[in-house]
Amino acid sequence: MHRVRDDAGEWLATKGTDQYRGGLDVAQVHANIDRDFDAHEFVGWQVGGQVVAMLAIIAPEADFWTPEELAEAQTYISRFFVTEHGRGYGTALLGAVEGRARQEGMRWLRLNCWSTNTRLHGYYRAHGYMHVRTCDVPGRPSGALFEKDLSAFSLERR
Predict the structure, then answer these.
(1) What is the tens place of the pLDDT at every residue in 12-24?
(2) pLDDT digits (tens, 9 = 90+) for 87-111
(3) How far apart are CA 58 and CA 38, in angstroms?
(4) Domain span at residue 43?
(5) What is the largest CA-CA distance in the chain?
(6) Which CATH number does the domain housing residue 120 bear?
(7) What is the dihedral angle through the alpha carbons of 94, 83, 4, 25, rounded to the nearest 10 degrees?
(8) Do residues 58 and 80 lie in contact, with contact meaning Cβ atoms separated by under 8 Å?
């Protein structure tokens, strides 16, 4: 999982974003990933025996969401990394997680992502997510909140 995160960070560096840059303590980042891996479910997408995309399914983060939003039926994703972009690996993984959330009766698929990465925001919009708001939480470079209404999607497909 650290290789996947590092590969994603190297790719992002070529795209002019400050994501995963700017004074982040890499050792602390990897310790946080280890902590999340121990505490939450990670889901990966493999090609040729190699993990090419992964994400964590965690509890919604109270720093960002209202008590009303936190109480809603949702699957919340975090630590979404893709090693090879433009091949559909991230889209395939998101689709698999979305299908599972729908089967489990979840209303929302939610996430927060890097606040300044507008290309990433566009990616989520292109995949049916709506921007809810952007929160400025001290010490957190993420805070752009996105959600996808799975019940609305299900109705559209009928």
Answers:
(1) 566 666 555 555 5
(2) 899 999 999 999 999 999 999 999 9
(3) 11
(4) 2-157
(5) 48
(6) 3.40.630.30
(7) -100
(8) no
